[in-house]
Design goal:
mainly alpha, Nucleotidyltransferase, domain 5, two-stranded antiparallel sheet, two-stranded parallel sheet, 40% helix
C-alpha cells in the first residue's frame, strides 16, 4: 500500500495466496500504524473488491476507488514503484522460498522509502515527504548549490542559480474536473 502524495510504501506483505480476508487484515494493520486515508484506490482484483475489504472500508468511512476495467494506467503510482522493483538488477527470476520473498521485499521497502529519490516529489525520498522533513533537505541543497555557484558559476548552463525544486500541491489518480464559477454540472 502506497501513499500517492509522498510515494511512501505504508505497508507491504507477501503471501503464498491472495484472499479478501488477507487483504482486510493487511489494510487494518496498515491503518492501525498509519493514518486512515479518505480514499483507497485499488485495482479490480478479487481481494480488493471482496466483501471483507468493502465492509472494513465502509466501517471506517473510507471511500473506495477502483481502476476502470482494462485501463492499466489508472494506478500509475503503484505501477511506478512496481516497475522500480522489477527492474532492479538484483531482482531474482525466482525466489527460493516465501521467507526469501518476504526478506527481499522488507529490504526493498526500506531502501525505496529511505533512499529512492523521485523527480515528482522534488528529488526527495518518500520518507522525507511522508514525515515532513523536506525543509531540512532543501536547506542543505541550497547551501551546496550556493557554494558550487560561488566557486564555478560558469558550470551552470543558464548562468543563474537553479530554482528550488517544487513539490506538488496534490496527487490524484483521476483529478476531479474543475468547474467555472456559476457553471452547472450536466447530467449524462
Amino acid at each position: 500500500m502506497i501513499d500517492i502524495y509522498s510515494r511512501y510504501i505504508v505497508g507491504c506483505q507477501v503471501h503464498a495466496r491472495e484472499s479478501g480476508e488477507l487483504a482486510r487484515e493487511f489494510i487494518a494493520q496498515v491503518f492501525a500504524t498509519d493514518q486512515i486515508p479518505k480514499v483507497v484506490h485499488a485495482d479490480r482484483g478479487t481481494s480488493m473488491t471482496s466483501k471483507p475489504v468493502a465492509a472494513l472500508l465502509a466501517d471506517l468511512d473510507v471511500l473506495k476507488s477502483h481502476s476502470r476495467p482494462k485501463v492499466s494506467n489508472d494506478n500509475p503510482y503503484s505501477e511506478a514503484w512496481f516497475k522500480t522493483l522489477k527492474y532492479l538488477p538484483v531482482f531474482p527470476e525466482r525466489f527460493g522460498s516465501l521467507a526469501d520473498a518476504r526478506d527481499f521485499m522488507d529490504r526493498f521497502v526500506q531502501a525505496y522509502n529511505g533512499h529512492h529519490r523521485h523527480s515528482g516529489i522534488g528529488f526527495h525520498t518518500p520518507a522525507d515527504v511522508h514525515f515532513g522533513m523536506t525543509g531540512h533537505v532543501e536547506d542543505q541543497r541550497l547551501v551546496a548549490l550556493q557554494k558550487a555557484w560561488d566557486a564555478h558559476p560558469e558550470r551552470f548552463g543558464q548562468r543563474r542559480m537553479p530554482k528550488k525544486l517544487q513539490m506538488p500541491e496534490a496527487a490524484w489518480i483521476n483529478e476531479p474536473v474543475k468547474q467555472e464559477e456559476g457553471e452547472e454540472m450536466l447530467a449524462a
